[in-house]
């Protein structure tokens, strides 16, 4: 039973699910659905897909996640960055707007789903950890800028394909004279109103006497107000006839369920893009889920999260949807609206299904420029310039990875951006650990302590050279250590004993082991002994399995003090 | 002057160069040259190039390295693995045997040279450190097997293109019936004699009364004996007329010096292959150089080594040669033969130039099967199965990288092999450090020491949870730590304070910093404080630059004991 519960987290909360929970969840789902409908349409538009697909992606995935996901609060569905990544990936395999383009988006969803489940099943959530925080932050900031700029075409009422800034920006400048003024006016007004609602509505409402939480919740429904108002205005004045782009007819009813045909070749072709979409989606989602879980002293299981999101994506593709993940803003709204369990997702799914069956005609006059305005305002809140400044102040290595990611996203697109980021952060980490702090140490007079000769006034014996390497010894710094020892010994002709003080070493890999053997042999050929001191337990356990200890020209000492004493006594016998 | 010497290491040893040195170096150069001539021809054959190119690659590079290299002993020239890599790379851009093929090999040499100088100039020798020892060892073992098998065609007297085992092995089986019996007999006899000479000649000579060093030196000239004898036999019996392949006419004289034309496109096309060739060559070379330097209490400068090898490669391309690097066997012979300074290389170059000008006709009857036999026997000594066993015993992670490299070289060739190896060893290191040892610790009764609760009988307070993470905190394990803290806190409902004991932490990157802030915030939202204890100096210096300390819900304590005392006193005020 315990095992089944591990794979089906829903069984745990369903056991205590009661009436109070039902009413709380139904109420929350109403609020969430009102937000989700325009968001779904907008993100489908952002992905360059038929708008109905946004709604399809907001039904089954919510139910699948409720059953398999481990977060009690996370609201899944289409989100901005993942939608843009889907559009970018699909555009490199098919012509935007074509049937193949739609098919590729659906395939990306199922392949992402399978990939996430695979990672979860093999407990390889580790791969997501390769995205460092500065890289994610830079990636999201840059993606938000790309999204906002790519949406300008809807605000200007012109048509430009793709998201790559190198193409979009020149095209915007060239076509700016052909902008459609009424569309532009509507778009800019919407942006202004949305910004006002986002930043001031809560304050105004609080002043009007609303409770803080209610005010904050209402202010988050700002986009809905703008969507409804603008739809009414366009409809009333028939503004679509003067050229304002509207959503138009959305097909009614749920699509027939079918798993897309998958060939091995297709999977291999789309896998890299699907994997990037999956990992970015997972990383965004898991940090949101973790924040909420902590508030309730719950914990989420990252591998189960992978499976939950995987199932959500497969469910999305089953119903002709595109890749989904857990979104921050909707999760906040759901939480604030009092959602108790993932059943909120199930209720939202039912509500969206109802909307899709009965109310699609209501979306007919919804202006595309307004959808774009909601996207622009939503993504601009993702731009985090303070993070760039903070990372710069804290770590230059992390800054290189972050700025590299931002530049790569802006100039070469999201996929190059994310891979550049991962590559740079790994390289910077290797670089950092491959240039370890190596101190020559001496004895603090009258104590058994040993400290850096450059910082402290310590005793040093001419015949003994003691080095302390403050880093794991592994392939990227093994040769650095060889060079350093060789250089120091070449400088000091009277040295007869070298001690490596291992207090800060948590691991020694096979390369470093070879290097230690090489150092020992080389020193021995110059009649110098190599000793080790203060080796940590787990490291010593490993060394005992190797040949190093046998071949070591010197000894292994428990403490640095013992090492020095013993060497001095042997060299100058009393 | 000091600065000029740094860039021109020759200035240092030239200052004290005297008559004794001259005679020692001339003698050593004679021995080296006798070995180098057949080796140069053999490795040019291995690379699929005109045999004269082997000699071209053994003149100017030796002089260039003598001037710019930092090792006093290293003998540069064509070596087996690099020659095969050159052949493999050239074959993927041009038809073997064509003029373009030769041109590509020369281009690879100049691009490698420029790449090495660039790395040296920018002090980026670091990149070579990304090749872990197990990966290099596996790469060389697998390459040796590939080389040996690819040379079987010359032993069988059949013709097969390329080195890829997937093609060579089936072709060998299919053509085995068409093998040329006299060639096969000659080849197998040569291999047998070479193996005998390698393993027993020294013993026999010692028994005959030779000094050990002389015996060892003579045994290394075994290939020369076989080459001379077989050439005499083929010439005397005119065996070339019955179909035994011979070297034939080698063009006399030195080629006119010219730098190959380089276009940007060509450089970009060949750069990946040239970079791999360079790095493999550098890594092989630098470890040889370092071993010799240590014997004489000298040290080599890896960045100057890059420049020295870079110049050698550019010099090689200038004279229509192919990529070269420092070789182990010739360096040993040179050292054993009493070489005092890099002038040995200059004398060898002069001797080879003389051979090229006056004695090429002597090589006419040299059988190709014998050259192949020398290659096979030479490379089989590179196969190091014990290393595989040792690494397996020491570290499973390193074994994965090593075996992955071997498999990739055998099945997909050298370039895929080396990149797979680098990728795997980085991934394994990240995997290892991303699964740190995290211990819950408690106080050893009556002391100020804190130990793992699972290994020691220690005191734990119900309200305090102390974790010790034995690893640097960085992006690949930041989320692991978040999960672990969340899971432990969820298990222990009475915890009010979490202490992170930082004794083993040498760095905290920006991701881990974010994670610590997130952990602090999340714990605070559950009314739990996060404290740090025993933070190392340099780590604390960095943390002070960040916002963490300000936002931390708890305090930073110098020692773990202080932390516990202070928390207990606050919680239960006396």
Describe the fold and architecture:
The structure is a homodimer of 574-residue chains. Chain A is mainly α and 574 residues long. Chain A contains 26 helices and 8 strands. In chain A, a hairpin with a 6-residue loop joins β3 and β4. In chain A, α9 packs antiparallel against α19. The model of chain A has no long low-confidence stretch (mean pLDDT 89). At the A-B interface, α8, α9, α14, α19 and α21 of A face α8, α9, α14, α19 and α21 of B.
Total of DSSP H or I helical runs spanning 4+ residues of chain A: 26
**Share in β-strands of chain A:** 5-15%
Tally of extended strands of chain A? Answer: 8
Give the oligomeric state.
homodimer
Q: Please report the two chains with the greatest interface, counting residues with C-beta closer than 8 angstroms to the partner's C-beta.
A: A-B, 78 and 77 residues
How much is the radius of gyration of chain A in Å?
A: 30 Å
Residue runs with pLDDT of under 50 for 5 or more positions of chain A:
none
- Sheet bearing the most strands of chain A, described? 6 strands, mixed
Q: Which sequence of strands runs across the widest sheet of chain A?
A: 4-3-5-6-7-8
Helix content of chain A: 55-70%
Alpha-beta classification of chain A:
mainly alpha
Mean of residue pLDDT values of chain A: 89
Shape of chain A: elongated
């Amino acid at each position: 039973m315990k095992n089944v519960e591990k794979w089906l987290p829903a069984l745990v909360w369903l056991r205590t699910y009661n009436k109070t929970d039902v009413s709380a969840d139904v109420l929350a789902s109403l609020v969430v659905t009102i937000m989700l409908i325009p968001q779904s349409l907008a993100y489908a538009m952002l992905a360059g897909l038929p708008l109905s697909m946004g709604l399809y992606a907001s039904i089954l995935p919510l139910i699948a996640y409720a059953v398999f996901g481990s977060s009690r609060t996370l609201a899944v569905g289409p989100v901005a960055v993942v939608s843009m990544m889907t559009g970018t990936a699909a555009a490199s395999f098919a012509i935007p707007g074509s049937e193949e383009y739609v098919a590729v988006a659906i395939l990306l969803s199922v392949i992402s789903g399978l990939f996430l489940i695979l990672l979860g099943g093999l407990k390889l959530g580790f791969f997501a950890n390769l995205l460092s925080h500065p890289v994610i932050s830079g990636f999201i900031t840059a993606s938000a800028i790309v999204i906002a700029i790519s949406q300008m075409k809807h605000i200007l009422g012109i048509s430009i394909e793709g998201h790559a800034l190198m193409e979009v920006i020149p095209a915007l400048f060239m076509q700016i004279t052909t902008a459609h003024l009424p569309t532009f006016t509507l778009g800019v007004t919407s942006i202004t109103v949305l910004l006002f609602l986002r930043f001031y509505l809560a304050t105004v409402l609080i002043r009007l006497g609303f409770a803080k939480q209610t005010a904050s919740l209402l202010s988050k429904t700002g986009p809905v107000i703008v969507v409804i108002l603008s739809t009414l205005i366009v409809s009333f004045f028939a503004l679509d006839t003067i050229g304002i782009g509207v959503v138009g007819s959305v097909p009614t009813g749920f699509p027939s369920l079918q798993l897309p045909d998958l060939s091995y070749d297709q999977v291999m072709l789309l896998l890299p893009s699907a994997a990037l979409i999956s990992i970015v989606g997972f990383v965004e989602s898991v940090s949101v889920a973790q924040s909420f879980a902590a508030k309730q002293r719950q914990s989420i299981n990252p591998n189960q999260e992978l499976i939950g999101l995987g199932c959500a994506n497969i469910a999305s593709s089953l119903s002709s949807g595109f890749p989904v993940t857990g979104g921050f803003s909707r999760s906040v709204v759901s939480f604030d609206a009092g959602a108790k369990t993932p059943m909120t997702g199930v209720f939202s799914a039912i509500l969206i299904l109802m909307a899709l069956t009965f109310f699609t005609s209501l979306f007919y006059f919804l202006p595309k420029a307004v959808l774009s305005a909601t996207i622009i305002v939503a993504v601009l809140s993702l731009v985090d310039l303070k993070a760039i400044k903070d990372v710069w102040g804290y770590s230059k290595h992390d800054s290189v990875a972050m700025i590299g990611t931002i530049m790569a996203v802006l100039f070469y697109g999201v996929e190059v951006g994310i891979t550049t980021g991962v590559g740079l952060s790994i390289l910077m980490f290797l670089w950092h650990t491959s240039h370890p702090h190596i101190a020559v140490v001496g004895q603090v007079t009258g104590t058994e302590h040993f400290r850096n000769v450059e910082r402290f006034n310590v005793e040093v014996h001419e015949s003994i050279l003691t080095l302390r390497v403050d880093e794991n010894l592994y392939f990227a710094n093994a040769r650095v250590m060889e060079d350093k020892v060789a250089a120091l010994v070449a400088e000091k002709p009277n040295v007869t004993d070298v001690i490596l003080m291992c207090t800060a070493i948590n691991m020694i890999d096979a390369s470093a082991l070879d290097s230690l053997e090489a150092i020992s042999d080389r020193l021995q050929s110059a009649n110098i002994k190599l000793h080790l001191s203060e080796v940590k337990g787990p490291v010593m356990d490993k060394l005992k399995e190797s040949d190093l200890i046998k071949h070591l020209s010197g000894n292994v000492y428990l403490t640095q003090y013992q090492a020095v004493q013993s060497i001095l006594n042997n060299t100058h016998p009393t």
